Amino acid sequence: MRETRLWSLHILVIPIILVLLGAHFALMHYAPIFYALSVEKAREFSTMIARGKNIGQFVVYILLLAAGLYHGLYGTRGILRELPWSPALAKLIDLGILIFGIAIFALGVYVTWWTFNFELGG
Ligand code: HEM
Ligand code: HEM
Predict the structure, then answer these.
(1) How much distance in Å is there from the Cα of 21 to the middle of ligand 2?
(2) pTM for the structure as a whole
(3) CATH fold for the domain made of 2-117
């Protein structure tokens, strides 16, 4: 039951990744088409900071971070689980992936928070 729930979440976050990563790529690679901005301007530090101060962007970054991280790490766990580990080692791998995921999520939230509060030229 628990395994089914974890797998369902892995599948359920796919639409979130599709939409948010699609928007992220539209901005980072096709800004001239979708936002009438040059690619250089869209990726400039000052533009990034200005974007990062928007609460909507803040939420979207965290959501994409959580969705991408969960999907990617659950998928990686699935690949690793194919190998013939002992039950104890399999548990250790699960724990390692969980700790890694929490650490990367915390780092991502910290960076997003840092950007949200950053003052240009201050
Ligand atoms: C639009 C983007 C994406 C779509 C549509 C997508 C779709 C899928 C689907 C359908 C599966 C198979 C699920 C299953 O049958 O259990 C899968 C597995 C996986 N995905 Fe994604 N995914 C996307 C993005 C990503 C990203 C950004 C990452 C990495 C961060 C990632 C990493 C993985 C991994 C590692 C697996 C497991 C592969 C395996 O078992 O061989 N995916 N994905
Ligand atoms: C060449 C491709 C990419 C470029 C140039 C790029 C660029 C950037 C930039 C400049 C930011 C800072 C925020 C902003 O300016 O809006 C950002 C944030 C972010 N990107 Fe990308 N990105 C790329 C690919 C990806 C991919 C493939 C993923 C996920 C699968 C991803 C996930 C994220 C997330 C989650 C954030 C929020 C950061 C955080 O954790 O605080 N990006 N990206």
Answers:
(1) 8
(2) 0.93
(3) 3 helical TM bundles of succinate and fumarate reductases (1.20.1300)
